[in-house]
Amino acid sequence: MGYNAFTVVASLRILGGMSLWLVLALPCLSPAAHGADVLGQKMELEYLSDGSQRPSLWGLYRWHVIGGLLVLGCALLMVGLLRQRTGRKRVELSLDERLRFETLLSELSARLIYISLNDLDREIEQGLRRMVDFLEADQGRLLDFSKDNPEASITHSWTAEGAVPPPSAVRLDELPWVVARLQDGELVRFSRPEELPEKDAAVDRRTYLGLGVKSLVGVPLLVGAKVAGALLLTTLGTERAWPDDLVQRLRLFGEVLAQALSRRQSEMETQQLRQDLAHVSRIATIGQLTTSLAHELNQPLTAILSNAQAAQRFLAADPVDLEEVREILKDIVDDDKRAGEVIRRLRNLLKKGNPEFRALDLNETVGEVARLVSGDALVRGVSIRLALAPELPPVRGDRVPLQQVVLNLVLNGMDAMRELSPQDRILILRTTRESSTVVRVAVRDSGVGVGEGNREDMFQAFYTTKADGMGMGLAIARSIVEAHGGRLEAHSNADGGATFSFTLPIGDEGR
Amino acid sequence: MTGVSSLVSIIDDDASVRKGLARLVKAAGYDVETFASAHEYLAQPRPEDPACLLLDVRMPGLSGLELQEALARTGRRVSIVFVSGHGDIPGSVKAMKSGAVDFLTKPVDDRELLGAIERAVAKAAQDRREQAVTRDVHDRIKTLTPREAQVFALVVTGRLNKQIAADLGIGEKTVKVHRGRVMEKMRARSVAELVRLADQGGVIAVNP
């Protein structure tokens, strides 16, 4: 603005100066009797019909005319310059704005690309906030068209500070016309709800009027060739126009968001597949335990049946030994609980749920696996020993998949000792605190050990040395451990056998 | 149920199963002793074997089948009823071939279990009777002179006096005398009875 004022003042000064000069010069330029003008030029004389002479009109006023034209020309020049200058100023301003927008855009896209999936939602919301602020809108929203539930389709929303958000969340079926446009990949904008077509968009109009939305611009988000969602910006208090260049920018932002959403979708699909695979392999693993589980369940069931039938006999006797019967009933209850415990452990391991990351006592996790395989170990003639570190700090993790990892390593270890004589089949489960931030779970067998060559290969999918193996166990185990921020590795023991171990970071609670 | 209560030994590594089975068997009127492992059972000195051994197949250390083998090696005939956690067919075949009374699957119903125990106890009594007879026959055989024993072995294979005389290189009359003494000492009234006693005493016919 200062620049602009300066230009105007300077131009006025120049013009003013020139006019002053002309005013001063005018008397000198007035017609003179001696027949010569101020510049000493001989004036052109006009001969009249009576023979007298007088200066012609041109002679008399030519300098006025020339001067006037000069001033006019200067003035035009000034105005032209001025106009040019203000025009350039506007171009420069929007360049600056565009630069800011592009910085914002590249910043957002960089963040959205590198951020982890867990933080993506928060980052998208931040992006929305910055876009709302930048474009001075009141509310920004992201719609997801892939969801079947019309109420759950607003995935992200940001309302500018000070703006009063609509009282209720909008449902997609309340905006049939707008949603249909967007789903066709078209842009939607209005500066007043009344601009919406009266007949076709009657429902939408009513909705927006009801919500207090004054103006809106909606950009479809394309993932591949499909419209995955839409970006909506609205003003709530005031009506507002959404010019083309602004919409253009919004489209760019929409593309960045669409990329992020498509990344999220594919990563979620991958994650889901990984979980499914882990679940399937878990079921397969547990399938190997059926014999031992039958044994585990049979023991308490046997005890319960014998006790109950013994009680029936005691009750038939005369006199009834109530003390004995009371004791029997207590034992039945205990054994029943024990059977329930076996089933609970099994069900926990079989259940398919969303990952639940929470503080986890690894000793308990490992101990539970040891109990689960105790029957199997008995059948296979393996003795399992626990060497659990006292006061092991909790880790942050999902119990079920981590138990799956331990279970897998234990079963592998028992398999590796198949050829040994029973007294040599010893499996040691050990937990240790490795450093101030890391704990380690190790499964040590006395089996055949691992060859130098297979040490990495065996973590690959479909790698197996067993006739009936799927070759997925270790690959899945490694991916589970890595998803927990740990590492799974194997090495041969100096005195024979192999140790498979994994590290896990200590959770915040344990530091 | 006989008036005298028989002893049933229960071996199972699971404490609560042991307790439950023991209660049930005791409620049926038997004397019961329990062991947590086969080793524990073997370590216990016993003047007489139990009437029935209720044995878990799958145990840490010595398994039920291994204990059966070990007992057979020592020549003790114990009536064994196996209880197994699951239908282990090869195991059950092996157990039955080795003379087990029954092979039951856990959880086991009381009638099934007590029926098997009853049969085992009966078998043990039968065994004991047979063993007593055998011991008696052995005692009688011990009174025979070496020559009489030779004649006894040849008579029960069905050889005639003449043949025996030729076999042993002695006179037919001498054979007749020996034979008469054998019949007397063995308290047999006929050759057929003598053959039965030889069978019970485990006398193997010797061919010279």
Description:
- The complex is a heterodimer of chains A (about 500) and B (about 210).
- Helices cover about 55% and strands about 15% of the residues of chain A.
- Chain A is of the alpha+beta class.
- Chain A folds into four domains: about 1-100, no CATH class; about 115-265, Beta-Lactamase; about 290-350, Helix Hairpins, CATH 1.10.287; about 355-510, Histidine kinase-like ATPase, C-terminal domain (Heat Shock Protein 90, 2-Layer Sandwich).
- In chain A, the strands form four sheets. Chain A has a five-stranded antiparallel beta sheet with strand order 4-3-7-6-5.
- In chain A, a hairpin with a 5-residue loop joins strand 13 and strand 14 (about 500-505).
- With about 210 residues, chain B is an alpha/beta fold.
- Chain B has two domains: about 5-130, Rossmann fold (3-Layer(aba) Sandwich); about 145-200, Winged helix-like DNA-binding domain superfamily/Winged helix DNA-binding domain (Arc Repressor Mutant, subunit A, Orthogonal Bundle).
- Chain B has nine helices and five strands; from the N terminus they run βαβαβαβαβααααα.
- In chain B, helix 6 (about 145-155) crosses helix 8 (about 170-185).
- The longest helix of chain B is centred in the middle third of the chain and has 33 residues, at about 110-140.
- In chain B, about 40% of the residues are buried.
